[in-house]
Amino acid sequence: MRPENQSSMSEFLLLGLPILPEHQGVFFALFLGMYLTTVLGNLLIILLIRLDPCLHMPMYFFLSHLALTDVSISSVIVPKMLMNMQTHHFFISYPGCISQLYFYIFFACVDNLLLAVMAYDRYVAICHPLHYTTIMRKELCVLLVSASWVTSCAHALLHTVLLVRLSICANNVITQFFCDLNVLLKLSCSDISLNELVILTEGGLILLLPLAIVLGSYIRIGTIILKAPSTRRFLKAFSTCGSHLFVVSLFYGTIAGVYFLSSSWDSKDIIASVMYTVVTPMLNPFIYSLRNRDIKQALQCLLTGLKKFICQ
């Protein structure tokens, strides 16, 4: 392959989803419905937390930011995918690809860090209930969330800058429906050893440290429960942590499918990517709202207020 400077590589071809042409319309409607559900569901969660004073608690403060990242990561990927399916034009410009990559890494990292912060919050709530309000004060919550956003910004910027310095080969075909870092590195004719080193060290730290916090928090919670086992205590812990545990499993399970269990079968990687970028952000509002009494009550109050307003 002859190398091309990044400035001369004007666009990339996104192979997209392995869908037959006659099925494009059905899948377009399916993904459009899933995207609208993601946006409306997560924005509703944010609105309820903002409006209801009963939800002005650390757990819901973190949840509102998680909902925002879910909307954002889906909005970075899905609208472009839908436009490609509708127009049958599967190209993306070089600046558009780099921008998509940056925001994808950024919001995925925020998601990862927020899940660790929420796990720590649940640990304090269950293991130190008497000191919960003292430990999880407003200043600490704001600091944890701010640190997550700033760290993610620096993390995404680092990997994006390291990528744009590379020369891209004449082959501009991306075997995905969005611009993924691993796929783009495979198109480079330059030495990518520095990129791989940073991914293994800094990227590994960003991924594994939050995972260690999540595992450590839940191991400690489990230890506390087993010291004095009771059905009531177990059910209370499960109601408090069940939704978060399910979301964590979805998040890390799909990441493992995309980056650690990849093989020569590209369709498997694409399915895992769809789960991570489309399905998981859509499911999160249902996971947190269906099992959460406070959010259900806030939603009921909102609907009651809307009915009164319409009747007037």
TrEMBL record:
Gene Ontology MF terms in the entry: G protein-coupled receptor activity; olfactory receptor activity
Record's subcellular location: Cell membrane; Membrane
Transmembrane helix found in the keyword field: yes
Principal location class: membrane
PROSITE patterns the UniProt entry points to: G_PROTEIN_RECEP_F1_1, G_PROTEIN_RECEP_F1_2
G-protein coupled receptors family 1 profile domain segment(s): 41-288
Any one of the GO CC terms: plasma membrane
Residues that span the membrane, as ranges: 26-48, 60-81, 101-120, 140-158, 205-226, 238-258, 270-290
Family statement drawn from the similarity comment of this UniProt entry: Belongs to the G-protein coupled receptor 1 family.
Protein name: Olfactory receptor
Species of origin: Phyllostomus discolor
Name of the coding gene: LOC114491047
